[in-house]
Please model this.
Amino acid sequence: MNLRTIENGVHLKNPYVRFSLILVAGFALRVFLSQFLTYGPDFSVWIGWGSEISSVGFGNFYDKFWCDYMPGYLIILWILDHLHSAFPGLSVDILFKLPSNLADLGISILIFYSLRLITTNKNAMTASIVYLFNPASLANSTFWGQVDSFHALPILLSIYLGLRKKYILSGVFAALAFMIKPQSIAIFPLIGFLALRPLIRDRRKLTVRSFLPSFELAVTVVLTSIAVTLPFIWGGIDSVNSLFTEPFALIKERFDTAYGQYAYTSLNAFNFWGAFLMWENDDIKLLGVSYRMLGTLMFGTAYIFIAGLLVRFAILMKNDENGDYAYLMFQSVTLILFTLFLFVTRAHERHLLPMIVFFTIIAFRSWIFWYLYAIVSGVYTANMVYSYIQLTTEYKGIPADYPMYFIPGLFCLYLLAYIVIFWDFVVNTVNYKNSSEPQLLLTR
Model:
């Protein structure tokens, strides 16, 4: 490729070249915008954790300092601290937002490859670009500086690789997602479902090979989880037995700390609890059932229903290479993550971002979905702005005693999108017929 060729527009007419240039431009824009609207308290904590790990080492960190994060992202903070020491002139905002901005770029690329499994290259490129420039992902990663996209990327990688029958790699990224944020454990049954597909398909003539994907996935998840914890517990390993017990003791301790940190119904999230009972203690009981248990029951009921329909679909389906299989898997993940955010207590406003990632993948099937996607992204961005104002102005921007009538309304917009996606999933799975040929789903 030479300059004259580019000037003549030969290569710029190639859609892949234009697509790549748009992604590069989008990433460059994110790096530039990273200098603005950073949420200082979170950033100072992350910078402090990185510096403290460098100072006392991984093995002493949890004992000496308060931290409610799993080990996964702490390793990234340690790397960032060393980069900051090596390049002191580099903007701290740009540097510490770089993992999330890179993750969003990676998500955009992976959205493209995921959609190539089920639709045209044009749809795949469109969805990829839409996500990279989505105000929702910009608000979370580029401005606020949160790490939800860094958590969403390994979830998406795990599902994508599971669909490609790369079960060992799928297990690696599933474990990494969990070791970054424990909420991803909600997706583990669906990742396991991908590995169980051979058992469902060969249920009348099971062989040892039918069990191999499940075994590979389970072993890989366990070994990867242990590997991530090793720097933090190495000094406490004094036997072969402790090599397995200590990592899981640390994981349980970190999980309990992360989950127990904020015992409230909603932490500024515009979900079911935020619409009516924002910042209430979730141990309060209604008719003898705590809000926390009630939210868990709602989530569990929806999960069982979704999983049941997915299993029914898998039993009827003869050909797992068709696009319907991949599409319904992405749709089920979208629904599970949406249900988790809307009904389980202790959700932060930013926790919906992984769902938006998967919603981007399924939106191409219907113009209605694209409208709902825009609505969900808009409400999410408004929620991030609301929370940013509340946290940075000590409720001076929006007084604490001000009637928040708009929050139930915005929650209803979320709920509308949820109901439409849920109904579409039900119709598509229930109406699916036993066929070896790919079928058009109803959302066209």
